Each structure stands twice: as structure tokens, then as C-alpha cells.
Amino acid sequence: MDRVYNNLISAYLMSRPASSKKSTRVHGDKELTNHYNEIVKSSKNAPMYIVRLNDDTQEYVLGLKEMSLGIDNAINGYFKNIDEAYSKIAVTTSDDSVDAKIVSEDSTLPEDMDIDVKSMASPQINKGNEYYSDGRGLPGGTYEFKANVAGREYKFRYTMGDRTRNSIAMRNLSNSINGAHMGVRAEVKRTDEGKIYMQLTSEDTGDAGIQKFEFEDVSDRSGIVSYYGLNHTVQDSKDANISINGVNYSHPSNSFVLNDGMEININRETDEPVHVGYKKDSAMVFEGIENILEQYNNMIDMSDRHGNTSGVRNSGMRAEMNILYSANAFSLQAAGIIRQESGHLTLERSTAESAFQSGIFEEVMGKDSEFLNRLSAQVNKMSLNPMNYVNKLMVAYPDYTREGYAHPYMTSMYSGMLFNYYC
Fold it and tell me: Which CATH architecture has domain 123-235?
């Protein structure tokens, strides 16, 4: 039996998103009573039958019950958060020159706006002297220099040997400057003529006219700073110049927050104003739906594997699922939920997004969704007695002319088979 159970775990119990990983057992007295009553009602109308309980059949039945519960959990989780999911909004922009996102839902968001980016905020850039990479520059020795960055002083000491190549000296200096994490990024650049130079760029932008950083040799003799030209500024920092609804503003960076709720990021200058507005946010809804579809598709795959392994195609479950989809095919396709030839259901994002914005998606997959409610009822029936979905030999049909009587051995066969190897 260990082999059967271990194979079930590895082959059939698919990984599930954290949102669906919850206990699948019945909770509470009322729910337990309802579950019991459903079993009794089902057994009164069930025929007597014999099932060949081989390993493949047991694996299939165990997997069918587990995955039925998984689908039901996914649907319940989706319905639990449905009001919040459909009430979310997202920011939309007419051009990717400007990005915008909501950073706080507790703040009052600004109204729609048009943003015109006339110039972006830029950093200070220093470009050093150009040398051939294999050239030998300064004589060997210890060199000291310092950097002033945003009012703070950083001291450096660099020791080099005689005839050290410029490429090695520049690379070591860049590593030292970057390793100080002082808000200046150092890089070794190469010209079209094959020469190299050091480029220093401030991490901060804006504050036009204020020098972001400055390097200085400490020793009296010609040193690292003067030789490699670390203080040669080729671009001063400047503020972003933007217009919001026709009103001009300047800002020291290319990112800012409006009303403590919306973050604006400038990517480049604009040819015409970019409209920033709002739309319904589909992310949370689609995540819940795709979780349900993933569980659904896992069950379809399990049925196919069982048919391929056993050589017996159990079409009952697949037929019921196909009927369920076909009854809702028109509305599901309008919402972007498509059935593939394999039987898998997929969410076609572009169609689904259009349906979401127009309200069609909520009509089809909202709290009153006929498909989801019927799917929940269907998988509940499967989990109640998964033995109904295997090939079996009928012994006696129920007599519908008389009051039925419960014979719970039919449904207990599912539990009993777990222990049959111990007898």
C-alpha cells in the first residue's frame, strides 16, 4: 500500500498556489452533519456494484477526490475575496514615456491628468582623461585622495607598482570608489579610437547648479585625481521640467509621488502630453481564475494519465466536465476562457482584459457565475463518492418504486480500500 500512496503523492497531487493550500477536511458540526446527510442521500439512490480495486484504480480514485476538493477550495477562495478583487483599480497611461502606479489605497488619489515632460532630471557626470589601456602612467607609490559627496568626506589610499598599466589602475580605482557606496558610480569607458577613461556619475539627480561630488588629491605632488582627470565635469545635474495639466513644475528626480498615493516615473521626454487615468484592476481576479483553471486542468491530466496507464478510458468525469463547459461555452468564450483540444481551459488574456473592462467578465465569472457554481456542485459530487467514476460491475439497481434505504458501504469503499492491504 505504501507504493500506491507514494505514487499518488508524486504523480497526482499537483503543486498548488499558497492561496489554495488549506485543509480539505469537513469543518464544524453543521458542515459535518450536511456532509453526512449528503452521503446518506447518495447511498439511497446508488446501485450495488463491484469494483476491481487494483493499484491503478485506487490511485485514480484517490487523486480524483483530492483534486475535486482542490477545485472546490479554489472556487471558495475566489468567492471569498470577490468583492475586494472586483473593486480594485489600476493606473493607466496613454504612452510608456510615463509610468504610474498606486502606492497607497488609503490616500485620496489625484484626478486624471495630462503630463508633458519637457526635460528629464539628470545626474552630474565627470569624464576623465583618455589614455591607452596598455600605457604606463604614474610612477609606483602610495597615492591619497578624497571625495566630497553631499557634504560628506571620503578618504582613499591607493598603492600601485612601477609601470602599472592604465587599464589596471583605472579598474582598481573604480572598484574602490564603487565599494565605498558614497553615491557616485565609477566606470571605465572605451573610446572609438581604442583609448580608455574613467566616468563618474552621481546617483542623485536634480538640484541644478549644486555640485554633487568633487575629488581632490591630498598629496602635493601630481596625483590620481589630476592625472586621470576625475574632476572634469562634462554634465551638471539638473531638475526635471514637467507640465501637469498645463501647470509647469520642476523636480529634482524623475520619480515623485502625488497625494501620497500615486507614484509617477518619467522614462523619457514626451512629444505630446501623456494622459494618466484609471481602469479596473484585473490582476487579483485573474489570479483567482487561473488558480481554478490550473486545478481543473490538473484533474483532466490525471484522467488522461489513468487512461493511458490502465488502458481503460474512464469517460464519465470528462463527459460531465465537457457538458458543463458546453452549457456555458458562449459566455465563457466571451470572457476569454477557452477550451483547448486537450480539454484544458485557458484564460486568453487580451480577450479577458477587454471583457473585464466592459463588465462582461464579472457577469460571467462573478459571484452569480453559473459556470463556477455548477462546477463547485459537480466537484462536490465527485468528492462525495469518487467510486462513481471508475469502471465497475453492476450487481443490483436501486428500486425507485420503494423508499430507498442507505447502504453506506458503497461510499465507505473509498475509505476501506486504503486499508485493504493490511487485511
Answer: Sandwich (2.60)
